[in-house]
Amino acid sequence: MIVCVCNNISDREIRQAADFGLTSFDELQRELGVATCCGQCRECACQVLEAHVASLPEAA
Ligand code: FES
Fold first, then answer.
1. Domain of 22, in residue numbers
2. Under a CB-based contact definition with an 8 Å cutoff, are residues 9 and 33 in contact?
3. Could you give the CA distance from residue 52 to residue 54 in angstroms, rounded to a whole number?
4. How far does the centroid of ligand 1 lie from the alpha carbon of residue 23, in Å?
5. Rounded to whole angstroms, what are the CA distances from 58 to 16, 30, 53?
6. How big is the chain by its Cα radius of gyration, in Å?
7. Would you tell me which of 13, 17, 36, 49 could form a disulfide with 22, CB atoms 3.0–4.6 Å apart?
8. In a domain, 60, yes or no
């Protein structure tokens, strides 16, 4: 599923970024550029990120 249409960023890419250690929306925005155009996707991107981070095992 595409979360950010403006920048063509999928939920999969957001989860992948979380797997690589991103935990906040600010980091996600900086790294992927999500929600840097119209901003419509911001809430959805946050939800995808938060849900995935919550499902990850505690970082060592
Ligand atoms: S849909 Fe993400 S910035 Fe427009």
1. 2-55
2. yes
3. 5
4. 19
5. 16, 23, 9
6. 11
7. 17
8. no
List pocket residues of ligand 1, CB cut-off 6 Å. Answer: 4-7, 35-41
Token pair, residue 57, equals 């095992």
> What is the number of domains present in the chain?
1
Q: Are 22 and 56 in contact (CB under 8 A)?
A: no
Spatial neighbors of 53 by CB under 8 A, at least 6 apart, are 18, 23
Tokens of 48: 């995808």
Report which ligand 1 atom has the smallest distance to the Cα of 39.
Answer: 3
